[in-house]
Design a protein that fits this description.
By secondary structure, the chain is α/β, with parallel strands linked by helices. It is built from six helices and 14 strands.
């Protein structure tokens, strides 16, 4: 099985006769519009295609994904419910999930968890591997700008969501994709650290950093101290072998 880094928080999962694309924003090409790993490769693979979107923020959901069904009429869209609420897609366009809800068919199992922003985070079970995509679930605080009360609320809200995950997820997560966004200031990987300290995961993948690769890499030491294999992302369209 393979994991592809597209851009920002977008990843592709390549399994046997199944392709999953999560939180598409832009393709991997830095020079040409709608060219790269998604349009030139993933959308041309045989088998089932699932397109997931954790929430309606434009850096996680591009409505252009709905045009992909013109080429793949059997494509399955699984979106967070806020995308429908915010009129970013129609009722017939996708399956919509709220926290605690599940989509399952004979190929995939997707459970929606909460967020500390809008929308969902997703736990995906696919061919004996589990993938957690955090969406915008994070300890969103800006230490240099936020008040003490705001920081405490962000921490409380995040730890509440972690508690819910721990109650629902009793097995180790194989792959976790989680924000490591240095725009938050000096404590930018606090949420990621709390996650790996409390939720056992085998492979940790940073995201939500655009192309600030060195900032994302700064979390490698902490991830490895907590027993994770850290995926060192260096460029768009990078592919990792994650086979057990």
């Amino acid at each position: 099985m393979k994991l592809d880094y597209i851009y920002h928080s977008c990843f592709g999962i390549e399994a046997n006769e199944v392709t999953v694309i999560i939180d598409y924003y832009k393709d991997s090409s830095t020079t040409e519009y709608n060219r790269g790993m998604v349009h030139d490769y993933l959308l041309n693979k045989p088998g089932k295609i699932y397109v997931l979107a954790t929430h309606s923020h434009p850096d996680h959901f591009n409505p252009e994904v709905l045009n992909w069904r013109d080429k793949h009429p059997n494509i399955v869209y699984v979106f967070s419910y806020d995308i429908l609420q915010n009129l970013k897609a129609g009722e017939e366009d996708a399956i919509y999930l709220k926290k605690g809800e599940v989509y399952q068919d004979d190929s995939i199992h997707i459970e929606a968890f909460g967020s500390t922003d809008i929308g969902d985070s997703f736990l995906i079970n696919l061919q004996n591997m589990s993938f957690f995509h955090a969406g915008d679930l994070n300890n969103w605080h800006w230490s240099e700008e936020s008040t003490l009360e705001e920081i405490e609320k962000a921490n409380t809200d995040f730890l509440s969501e972690l508690k819910y995950i721990k109650q629902r997820v009793t097995k180790t997560i194989d792959v976790t994709m989680f924000p490591v966004d240095n725009r938050m200031g000096k404590d930018y990987y606090k949420g990621a650290q709390q996650f790996v300290e409390q939720i056992k995961t085998i492979i940790f993948v940073p995201m939500h950093f655009d192309e600030t690769y060195t900032a994302a890499d700064a979390f490698q030491k902490i991830a490895e101290e907590n027993g994770c294999r850290f995926l060192d992302i260096t460029h768009r369209g990078q592919t990792f072998d994650i086979t057990k």
